[in-house]
Amino acid sequence: MAAVSDPVDLRAPWRPARPEPPPTRFHQVHGANIRVDPSGTRATRVESFAHGVCFSREPLAPGQVFLVEIEEKELGWCGHLRLGLTALDPATLAAVPEFSLPDLVSLGHTWVFAITRHHNRVPREDRPEAEALAPSRPPALLVEPYLCIEQFRIPRDRLVGRSRPGLYSHLLDQLYELNVLPPTARRSRLGVLFCPRPDGTADMHIVINGEDMGPSARGLPAAQPLYAVVDVFASTKSVRLVQLEYGLPSLQTLCRLVIQRSVVHRLAIDGLHLPKGLKDFCKYE
């Protein structure tokens, strides 16, 4: 599998970008209570609080983020979304387990965490244990255009959740950018990826609204296909996939960024003399 983003080295000479991976989709194998829309990008649990385990359709490439946005919540349940990776091929499962934790994990070769802001971080042997207690937030969280995770550089723009367009959306958007909302709030964006290491293993990282929570697991088999696992559990009812651009941003994306930074809030975009398709793209993406 080829990496989807080049290692960070500002001194390196320019070279053509590597091909982008195919768009992420949900696997046709999933929990009994999950319904996946025809596009394969939205998964909804239609009843109960369990049997909501989903997988990526294809194994992830190194540095590729499987990114979901929480679309719907359901009151009355205790617990939230769970996220991780598995080396098990979903197509070979006799039956999809009821829960990712502990059922799927107990099958082996699976690493899944309940999403919280303080889930386990695994310290490196050459670093103090205290460093693993809390993620180090970049000083320029709001202005740094890339999120750097180990050897990979990932555009931050679409990693961050956004509120619904409204009069106060510009204020609410800042809460997502600062990552001060509950990590499983509606419209939060959560991602998982793996980063290979020289010894042939990989680290698994979880990203919450554009912030790397640090390595959650080490020693994953980097040479084996690794599928993303999303457990649409309990109070999380529906999620949708968000696609990322790993190379140079498209002209459409650059136009959107310029327009969004030139208005007070997204409702003001309606008053601009622009094609409706571009207005909608700027308001909702």
Automatic annotation (TrEMBL):
Classification via InterPro entries: B30.2/SPRY_sf (IPR043136), Neuralized (IPR037962), NHR_dom (IPR006573), SOCS_box (IPR001496), SOCS_box-like_dom_sf (IPR036036)
Pathway: Protein modification; protein ubiquitination
Residues in NHR domain copies: 23-244
One example of a Gene Ontology biological process annotation: protein ubiquitination
Pfam families: Neuralized, SOCS_box
Positions of region (Disordered): 1-23
Listed CDD domains: SPRY_NHR_like
Domain SOCS box: 250-285
Entry's Gene Ontology molecular function annotations: ubiquitin protein ligase activity
Name under which the protein is recorded: (raccoon dog) hypothetical protein
High-level lineage: Eukaryota, Metazoa, Chordata, Craniata, Vertebrata
